[in-house]
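Bit of a strange request maybe. I'm writing a small parser for structure token strings and I need a real example to test against, not something I typed by hand. Could someone generate the tokens for this chain?
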Amino acid sequence: MYHPGKIVKVFAPGRKEVISAGGATLALVAMWDDNIMTLEIDKKIEKKVGEGDVVLVDYGPMGKIGVPVPRQVITTVLKGETARQTWEKYKKYNDGRKGGQPNAMPPMPVPRYIG
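Reply from user aminoacidic:
Good idea to test on real output. This should exercise your parser:
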């Protein structure tokens, strides 16, 4: 399973504004469902990912360790019309789930007193 997101900022080790204990390149990602995450970029594509890119995040399980834990690594960069259409399709779906109101909170249930 893969989830689309949009790169907000790339954090690459070796840049003067990034001090890292590890060698992984990370990215701040705005996900299609309004979540914000900082995720690792797969080494094979880390130099090809930039701000504003639409990416796919691998949510497949990590190995066979009992309870499935999603990998959550950026593995694919989408460009051009494919990126635009993918992002719009997911955002439209997400807006529909919320009743067309961005960032709308669902109504709180009314507590009932049972005594």
